[in-house]
């Protein structure tokens, strides 16, 4: 999760988020190179003494500074498109989780098993445990197996919400009357925090998501203990 003074991206916990971070760094590096070059050129204009009265056109330089940006854009566009399609790829998921956005909490359904379903509310500050995270911890966590392909179906019951987990590279809108799909793979055990990220009303900030990533055998135990 994100803590104070953490302004960049969180550490990735899934292959897709790893790729997203690689792409972010790649795009940022190109951005820095362009900024330095243009900054240098603009700075050097101050020292231009306009000596060449007959310099009216330059076909070659015009060609270069037209085509070069187009090529640079390709180096951003192609990896971006690759990632976009990679994010939408479904790789034979072994678990499907349905999450439904409500004003203002999430509810979950594990329809693959014994149709386990529960609501997940934020723990209010006055009821928070001493080691709890304010505005982030919930009463019922989403338990999911690590190192497995997981499919998420997202929808909403009232207004648009968004199921967002930064460390996993997941952000899917929950829209009433629609069912959106995405998938991810969790690399390691742990708690992964997320928040709703569509402005959905007064308590938009107070419907967090907590994923408890556990080893597969532990997940099977959890699922069999909840088969009511
Ligand atoms: Cu739900 Cu914002």
UniProtKB/TrEMBL annotation:
**Cofactor: bound how, per the entry note?**
Binds a copper A center.
Which UniProt key words apply to this protein?
Copper, Electron transport, Magnesium, Membrane, Metal-binding, Mitochondrion, Mitochondrion inner membrane, Respiratory chain, Translocase, Transmembrane, Transmembrane helix, Transport
CDD domains listed in its UniProt record: CcO_II_C (cd13912)
Membrane topology, record value: Multi-pass membrane protein
Pfam families documented for this protein: COX2, COX2_TM
Q: What does UniProt give as GO cellular component?
A: mitochondrial inner membrane
Where is the Cytochrome oxidase subunit II copper A binding domain positioned along the sequence?
92-225
Q: Name the needed cofactors.
A: Cu cation
Molecular function as annotated in GO: copper ion binding; cytochrome-c oxidase activity; oxidoreductase activity
The family line of this record is: Belongs to the cytochrome c oxidase subunit 2 family.
Q: How does it assemble?
A: Component of the cytochrome c oxidase (complex IV, CIV), a multisubunit enzyme composed of a catalytic core of 3 subunits and several supernumerary subunits. The complex exists as a monomer or a dimer and forms supercomplexes (SCs) in the inner mitochondrial membrane with ubiquinol-cytochrome c oxidoreductase (cytochrome b-c1 complex, complex III, CIII).
Its name, as the record gives it, is Cytochrome c oxidase subunit 2
């Amino acid at each position: 999760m994100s803590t104070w003074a953490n302004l960049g991206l969180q550490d990735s916990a899934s292959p897709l988020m790893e790729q997203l971070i690689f792409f972010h760094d790649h795009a940022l590096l190109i951005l820095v190179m362009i900024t330095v070059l243009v900054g240098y050129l603009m700075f050097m204009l101050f020292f231009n003494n306009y000596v060449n009265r007959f310099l009216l056109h330059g076909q070659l330089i015009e060609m270069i500074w037209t085509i070069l940006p187009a090529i640079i854009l390709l180096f951003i566009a192609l990896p971006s498109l690759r990632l976009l399609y990679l994010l939408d790829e479904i790789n034979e998921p072994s678990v499907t989780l349905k999450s439904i956005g409500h004003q203002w909490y999430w509810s979950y359904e594990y329809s693959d098993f014994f149709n386990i379903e529960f609501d997940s509310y934020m723990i209010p500050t006055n009821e928070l445990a001493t080691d709890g995270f304010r505005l982030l911890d919930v009463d019922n966590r989403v338990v999911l197996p690590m190192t497995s392909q997981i499919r998420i179906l997202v929808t909403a019951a009232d207004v648009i919400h968004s199921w967002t987990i930064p460390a996993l590279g997941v952000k899917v809108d929950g829209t009433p009357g629609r069912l959106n799909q995405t998938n991810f793979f969790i690399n390691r055990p742990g708690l992964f925090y997320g928040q709703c990220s569509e402005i959905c009303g007064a308590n938009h900030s107070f419907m967090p998501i907590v994923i408890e990533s556990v080893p597969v055998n532990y997940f099977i135990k959890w699922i069999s203990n909840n088969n009511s």
